[in-house]
Design goal:
The chain is mainly α and about 140 residues long. The chain is built from six helices and no strands. It is globular.
């Protein structure tokens, strides 16, 4: 069994969150909208929102790194399977309704589910190139 590469997972989480934010800027015209929302909703301020947002990205990348070897499909598809499942379960069915935006954010806009999924697809890109490089290598076995 392959060991989790913590360094690659952490770097992928930070880079993925940056890409997530860039896609968000392209679609919403706002930089760091999620950290602002986190800081506002928790009452802990914008700086907390930034650390919470990026910390969440790192935690998701670590979680992906741990379960990636057990997902099916080519190594480059696995991050998309993971972020799609994560977006549906945690964002569309939990976070957005909790924020009053309705299931998948449809009370906000018909584009909200599309934008949230595209943002998470952008997050997946560093997972492909950093974390999944270890998956492409055949596992070394000790023969007796």
């Amino acid at each position: 069994m392959k060991k989790l590469n913590w360094t690659k997972a952490i770097i992928a989480g930070v880079l993925g969150t940056i890409l997530f934010d860039i896609v968000g800027l392209i679609f919403t015209g706002q930089w760091w909208d999620i950290p602002g929302l986190l800081g506002q909703k928790t009452g802990l301020g914008f700086v907390y929102g930034i650390f919470g947002h990026y910390g969440n990205g790192v935690l998701l990348a670590i979680l992906y790194s741990a379960i990636a070897p057990h997902l099916w499909g080519p190594h480059w598809v696995r991050p998309f399977i993971f972020v799609t499942a994560e977006t549906i379960a945690l964002v569309w069915l939990f976070m957005l309704p909790l924020l009053g935006a309705g299931v998948a954010g449809l009370n906000q806009s018909a584009m909200t589910p599309v934008v949230t999924l595209l943002r998470h697809f952008a997050f997946a890109i560093p997972l492909i190139f950093l974390v999944n490089q270890d998956l492409k290598q055949p596992e070394k076995t000790i023969s007796s």
